[in-house]
C-alpha cells in the first residue's frame, strides 16, 4: 500500500520531526550540532524555506518551517539529511542509515496553534529532564525568540511578530507564554497530528486543508471512508 502523501501547502507553517534510526543518537559532539544548524540554514535558503523554531535533541530534531512551494521542505530535508549523514559516517567511521525513514510533519494553523507548537518544540529538553528551563539548552531557538540572542537561521513568523510592537515587547510576551506548561491534551494533539500527517488546528482549518488538497487532513472515523471534497483554487489561511 503506497504511503500517504504529506500535507504541504505554500507558506503554511509545518511542524516536523526527524528521528535517528531505531531512535539511536544522531548527534555525538558539539561540532555535530553546529554543522547541522549551519547546513540547515544553507539548505533552507537554497530551497526557499524559513525556519521559525527548532530544537536538536540527541536522537531527533524538531523544526517549524514555512516554505514558498509545496515541495520545498521535502527537498530541503532530503539534501540536509544526506549531507549530515555523510558527515557522521565519515567522522565516526560508521556506515548504514542514520535517519528513521521519512520525517513526520503536520500543517499548523497560525491562530492559537503555531505559538503553542513553538512552546512544544522549545520545551523538549525540559520534558526530557535535561534542563529546568529552555534557556539553559544551547541547541534550540528559545534564546533567540525569547531573549534576543542573535541567530541568523531564524525568520520570525507573522504570529511571532504580532506579539508586540517592537523586539523587546515581543520577547517579553514570548517569555510569558512559557510561564506555564502546555496542557496535556494540546501536547497529545500536536503529537497525533505530527505522527499522523494531519492538520493541527480547529475544524475549520482542517476543512480548508481538505478543500485545498482534496485529501483527508483530520483524524478518520470508523466506517466507510468519505469521498474527499474537490480541490479549490486559492487558500483561505
TrEMBL record:
Region described as Disordered: 216-237
GO biological process: DNA transposition
GO terms for MF: DNA binding; transposase activity
Coiled-coil annotated spans: none
InterPro entries the UniProt entry points to: Transposase_17, Transposase_17_sf
Domain Transposase IS200-like: 9-124
Name of the molecule in the record: Transposase
Source species: Massilia glaciei
Amino acid at each position: 500500500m503506497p504511503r500517504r502523501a504529506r500535507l504541504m501547502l505554500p507558506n503554511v507553517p509545518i511542524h516536523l520531526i526527524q528521528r535517528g534510526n531505531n531512535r539511536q543518537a544522531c548527534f555525538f559532539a558539539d561540532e555535530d550540532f553546529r554543522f547541522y544548524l549551519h547546513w540547515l540554514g544553507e539548505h533552507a535558503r537554497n530551497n526557499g524555506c524559513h525556519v521559525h523554531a527548532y530544537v536538536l535533541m540527541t536522537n531527533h530534531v524538531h523544526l517549524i518551517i514555512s516554505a514558498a512551494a509545496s515541495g520545498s521542505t521535502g527537498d530541503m530535508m532530503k539534501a540536509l539529511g544526506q549531507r549530515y549523514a555523510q558527515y557522521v559516517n565519515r567522522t565516526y567511521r560508521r556506515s548504514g542509515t542514520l535517519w528513521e525513514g521519512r520525517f513526520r510533519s503536520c500543517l499548523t494553523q497560525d491562530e492559537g496553534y503555531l505559538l503553542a507548537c513553538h512552546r512544544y518544540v522549545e520545551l523538549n529538553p525540559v520534558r526530557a529532564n535535561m534542563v529546568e528551563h529552555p534557556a539553559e539548552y544551547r541547541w534550540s531557538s528559545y534564546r533567540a525568540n525569547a531573549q534576543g540572542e542573535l541567530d541568523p537561521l531564524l525568520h520570525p513568523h507573522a504570529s511571532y511578530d504580532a506579539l508586540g510592537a517592537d523586539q523587546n515587547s515581543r520577547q517579553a510576551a514570548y517569555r510569558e507564554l512559557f510561564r506555564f506548561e502546555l496542557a496535556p491534551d494540546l501536547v497529545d494533539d500536536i503529537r497525533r497530528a505530527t505522527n499522523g500527517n494531519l492538520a493541527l488546528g480547529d475544524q475549520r482549518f482542517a476543512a480548508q486543508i481538505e478543500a485545498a488538497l482534496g485529501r483527508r487532513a483530520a483524524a478518520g472515523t470508523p466506517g466507510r471512508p468519505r469521498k474527499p471534497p474537490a480541490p479549490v483554487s486559492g487558500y483561505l489561511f
